[in-house]
Amino acid sequence: MKRHETIEFIIINNKYFLQVIYLPLAFFIPPSHFMVHNQLNLIYQLWIHTTVIGDLGPLELIFNTPKHHRVHHGCNLYCLDKNYGGVFIIWDRLFGTFRKEERKDEIVYGLVVNIESFNALYLQVKNTIINKCIYSVYG
């Protein structure tokens, strides 16, 4: 299983990706509304990455909390490919990608396999190239 969100990849590509997302919004959303929404989202994303906050009770049924987000960043076997929701965890519950944090095992943060390049294009196509080579040999 591959993991995402290497910090190098985010830093390299974030400035390009966000422009593609935000530019069309300029045609439909007043700038003041966009700025408020953007700032609230940034605050929420900072808050969700804390390790200080524990259980939040019934809020955890709907919202992605720091407790859920720790699982998203873990490379423990039970954490892989889980808890994708940015704000609402309800989607993960509906689509089967939700996993609770297990207190018996400390979460190890990081990647299962380290990346060997910081080239954004290579990182996007390397699995396709590898799979093509395997299928050409083994049919």
TrEMBL record:
Keyword Lipid metabolism recorded: yes
Record keywords: Lipid metabolism, Membrane, Oxidoreductase, Transmembrane, Transmembrane helix
GO process annotations (BP): lipid biosynthetic process; membrane lipid metabolic process
MF term (GO), any: iron ion binding
Ranges annotated as spanning the membrane: 16-36
Major localisation: membrane
Entry-linked Pfam families: FA_hydroxylase
Membrane topology per record: Multi-pass membrane protein
Coiled-coil parts of chain: none
Location in the cell: Endomembrane system
Domain called Fatty acid hydroxylase: residue spans: 13-97
Gene Ontology CC annotations of this record: endoplasmic reticulum; membrane
InterPro entries listed in its UniProt record: Fatty_acid_hydroxylase, Sterol_desaturase/TMEM195
Protein name: Alkylglycerol monooxygenase-like
Organism, scientific name: Pogonomyrmex barbatus
